[in-house]
Amino acid sequence: MAEKLLLIIPVEADGSMPKVAWETVGAVRSLAEAMQCSFDVGLWGQDVLPAARALARCGAARFLAVQGDDFAQARYATDAAASEALARASQATMILAPSTSRTNRIIGGVAYRLGGRADTHAASIQLVDGRLQLTRWYYRQRIMVVLEREHRPWLIALEQGAGAPWAGEPADVTLEWVTAAAGDTERRTQFEAIQQPPADQQTIRPDAELLFVAGAGWTKKQRDGQVHVEEADQIIREFLRKSGASLGGTKSIVDQAGEGGAVLSCMSHMNQVGQTGSTPRHPKGLATCCHGEEPHVVGWRFINERRAVNLDPNCGWAHGKADVLYVADAFEVMRKVNELLS
Amino acid sequence: MSGGLHFVVCASLVPDPLQTLEPVMGPSGPSLKNETMLPAVLDPWAAHALYESAALVKKIAGSRLTLVTLGPKAKVQQVMMTAGQKVAFEFVAVDGSASGFTESMETAAALAEAIRALPNLEMNRLVLAGGWESASRGAGTTLQIVGEMLGIRDQFQGVDEFHVEADGSLKILERLEGGRYQVSRCPSPPVVIGWATGTLPEPPNNPQIGMMNMRAVMPALQRAKTVAVGAQGVRFVAAELPKQKRETRVVKDASPQDIAREIVEWIRGRS
C-alpha cells in the first residue's frame, strides 16, 4: 500500500514549536526518504506563520494550517478538532507528531475519530524489509517491543531521540488553510493560566545535562541517630543551584509527604521518577541514597551515564545498572561536591 | 452542586511493580512469563484516580463513585481484597485480558459498553476518571477513546488537582513539561479526568469498608460479562528485555573529598 505521511505540530501561543518537533521533522524526512513517498506538514495555533516559515525548506509537499485565537492554547476539544481536520485534508495514512503533553493528550481520541490506531511514546519508526516497524516500551520501560500495524491511519507520537534534529533556513511558504470545528461545544473549557514555580524553586529542568535523584535515605536517621532533613534540603538545593541539575525523587521519598514523614521541601510528586513516576531523558544521572530495585531502575532507562552514591555496597546499582557506585555517605560527599562547585 | 457528581473510575490490574517481568512470545503475540502467577495490584495511577475521586465524593453532597475494572475475574477478586479496603465504591467488573499487549481501542470499547450500561447514568453528572497512563501498555490513549465513545469532548490528562467551585464549574490542573501546570476551567460535566498522582496519600486499609465493598464485589464478579480484548491488526515482531548490562565500578574506600572531586570532574565532562 502506498503510504502518505503527515507531520502535525501544535504551535505555541508565542509562535514557537516544542523542541522535540525538530527531531520529529528529522525522523519524518528520513522515513519519507526510505519509503520514497511525500509528506505534508500540518500546523495549528493562533499564528502559525513563523513556524511554517521556519519549516519552509524541510521538504514537505504541502503546508496545511488551522489558525485562530481558539487554537492558541492547549485544549482537548480544539486541539483534537484541528488535528482531525488536518488529517482529513491531507488524506495521510500515517500521521506523526512530536511527543509532548499537548499531543499525547489528544492522539488517542483523534485516532478514534479517524477510524485509525495510535501509538504514543514511540522510540523509533523505521522501514525494515519494506515493512514499517515501530519500537516502543511496555510495562513502564521494562519491555521493549517492535510492532507492525495493518490499520490506517496510524497515528504516532515520537519521543525525543527518535530522529536527528532538522535545521534549515526560514523561507516564505504557501499555506493551505484548513477549517476546524471551534463552536460552543469545543470552547466550553477555558484556559486560565500556566502555573510554574518561581525560577529559584524550579527543580524540574528537562534540558539539564544532569538528573540528580534523591532517595529516602536523605530523610532517615544518620550515623548520630538523628534525622537531618533541613540539612539535606539545604545540601540538595545548593547542589541544584550550582550544577543546574534537574531533581528527581524515588517513590518512597515523595510519598513521605502524604504519610506524615520527614519531607524535603524541594521535592514533590512531580519530581518522582521510576515505575510510577517519569522516565526523564538526560545525558547523565547521579543517584544518592537510593536503593536499586526495579521500579527505580526503570526511571533511569533513558539516562546515558549513571553514577550512584550509597552506603550499601550490595545495592542493586552494583549489579550492572550504574557505571560507578561510590560506597559513601551522601551527606559528606555532596557537601564536598558543593564546595568544589563554588 | 445540587445532585452531586457521578465519578466513574476505570482501573485495571498490573503486575506488582516489584516483580521481575519477562516477556514470552506466543502464536497470538507476547505475554508475560508466568503471568497468571504474578501478584497483581490496582494500576497505580488509576488507584490515585480512585482515591482522589473518593475524597471528592465525600466533599460533594449527593455524589457517588463507581469503579469499573477490566481484568481476569480471579485476579480482580484477589486485588479487590486489598484495594477494596481503601475507599467505598459501587463496583462493575468486566472479565477480560488486562495484558499490556492488547489494543487500547478494544479495551476502550469494552469499558465504554460497561459504562453505558451503568444504572442511573446521567451524562450531565459524569466525571469519567482513570490513570492518565497505565503501567502496562502505558500509551495514555484508552481513557481518551472511552471519552470519545461516550461523546465527551472536555478531556484533561496528567491531572493533579480537580476542584468543584462554588458556581459548580470545574477547575483542573494538568501537568505540563518542566514541572508546570495548565489551569483550565470547564463549566460542568461531563468531563474526562486522567489523573497523575494527585495530592492525596494512599488511604489506610479499613476492614469495615472492605467488608462493605466485598458484599458488592462478589456478586459483581459473578455477573461480569466476558469480553475478548486483544490486539487485532497488530503484529508483534519482538518483545524483549533491554540487553544492556553495565560493568559497574564499585568505589569502596575513597574519601568523600576524592569522591566529590571525581563526581565534579565527571559533571564538568572531564572524566
Could you explain the architecture of this structure?
The complex is a heterodimer of chains A (342) and B (271). In chain A, helix 3 crosses helix 5 and helix 6 runs parallel beside helix 9 (330-341). Chain A contains nine helices and 15 strands. Chain A is 26% helix and 27% strand. Chain A is elongated. In chain A, a hairpin with a 4-residue loop joins strand 6 and strand 7 (143-149). In chain A, the strands form two sheets. A nine-stranded mixed beta sheet of chain A has the order 7-6-5-8-4-1-2-3-9, with helices on both faces. Chain A is an alpha/beta fold and 342 residues long. The longest helix of chain A is centred in the N-terminal third of the chain and has 17 residues, at 19-35. Chain B is an alpha/beta fold and 271 residues long. In chain B, 28% of the residues lie in helices and 30% in strands. Chain B has helices at 44-59, 73-83, 104-116, 142-149, 207-223, 256-267, and strands at residues 6-15, 23-26, 29-32, 40-42, 64-71, 90-95, 126-131, 155-164, 170-175, 181-186, 191-195, 225-226, 234-240, 249-251. In chain B, a hairpin with a 5-residue loop joins strand 9 and strand 10. Chains A and B meet through helix 3, helix 5, strand 5, strand 6 and strand 7 of A and helix 3, helix 4, strand 8, strand 9 and strand 10 of B.
